[in-house]
Amino acid sequence: MTLPDKPVSSKETDAEFFKNSVPSISQIWEWLHAVPDPEIPVISLTDLGIIRDVVWEGETLVVSVTPTYSGCPATSIINLDIETALRDRGLTNIRLKQQIFPPWTTDWMTPEGAEKLEKYGIAPPTAAGGPKRCPNCSSTNLEKLSQFGSTPCKAQWKCQDCLEPFDYFKCI
Amino acid sequence: MPATNKTVDQSALFQFLLRMGDNTLVLGHRVSEWCGHAPVLEEDIALANTALDLIGQTQFWLNLAGEVEGAGRDEDALAFHRDVWDFRNILLVEMPNGDFGQTLMRQFLFDAWASIMLGRLQTSSDERIAGIAAKASKEVAYHLERSADTVVGLGDGTAESHAKMQGALDYLWPYVGEMFISDDVDTAMVSASIAPDPTSLRNEYDAILERVLGQAKLSIPTSQFAHKGGRTGAIHTEHLGHLLTQMQWLQRAYPDASW
Questions:
Q1: Which of A106, B37, B42, B77 has the CB geometry, 3.0–4.6 Å to B73, for a possible disulfide?
Q2: ipTM above 0.95, yes or no
Q3: Which CATH superfamily is domain A14-104 in?
């Protein structure tokens, strides 16, 4: 990152100056928590569990990101959004690392993320492999329409009571 | 275990990775040809999503292939700047889509093999390969569930759908054997504990086919004849060239164009 000009009289060493002026790792996680998923903007990237690690390597901030699905077209947009969010906070020396192992699982979605999804009308993933209830009327009388949906991470279901079709976030 | 085993013959490893990546690339492109043409919207979306997963897996395989080759080619250069004779995919995946049933039969025959292969590759001595296999395995398990369900639904459906599925199986059957033929590249991979011997996957594969095709009320052809040449690049069907002219059109017309 580019450091602001330091006063000539400063007794700090360069290393100390750097340490005192960079944001903390927890601060950076907080910023990333505010970056929405580009396709399901109601949840954030950290809710989704795709940011695996944030570390300083010398003066470079390294963010490890795991893709949800191999071919998910949102992956490049997600990287762009992370970089933009961090640049907006003044960080310029950023490296994004793609980490595919261990592979992403919906178990890494936070409970907060699952709750936000349901409120938005998308049934959150369950270990049983299907939605627990209709996100609109809470009925359990459900029917699967298709194993796939409008994005790689979703399937299409329909409620037999309120008759609304809805998205289910696939469990992988 | 080392991330890169330098004692491995790198040119054999490159060939192995091309085989993996070209299979998913060519099949991914074939399946994407259905986009906007499937019989119902849900199937259209399902096929497009399957294609997307396969193209995503291709990026991992060919990216690693380019790294191993060390000649400065990335996954795009390998996908778009090679001609027919440099492709190493099995012939099965380049076969035309035919009707919806034939497309799903081809998908099932491939998914069953891929699910076993990727399962074995998760214990590869090369961590990079094990990592890609772990990721792709999850997606392929989902593909297999759907292609097997559809084969059963159509095979055990109406008289017409049954006849079409039996026809598709008979037509594609001579392209199944190539997946299980070993050569020098495979021997090199086996001795470095990178990948399994293709012939060792056959029993498990036959068990999946017997179960699913039995449920689908389809008869498995008895012929052992196998068309081959795709994996080695010795000979491809005439269909691959046509596929490439479409897939590579932009890069052929405007080399290295980017946006």
A1: B77
A2: no
A3: Fe-S cluster assembly (FSCA) (3.30.300.130)
